[in-house]
Amino acid sequence: MALCKICEKEQSKYKCPKCRAPYCSLVCFKKHKGKACFDFYRLVPVRKEITPIGAPDEEDPSRLTPQDLEKLAYSKEIHKLLEHPEIREIIRQIDCSKTPVVDLDFMRSNDPVFDDFTKKLVEITFKEKLDAVQKKGT
Question: Smallest Cα–Cα separation from 15: which of 1, 133, 97?
Answer without folding.
Answer: 1
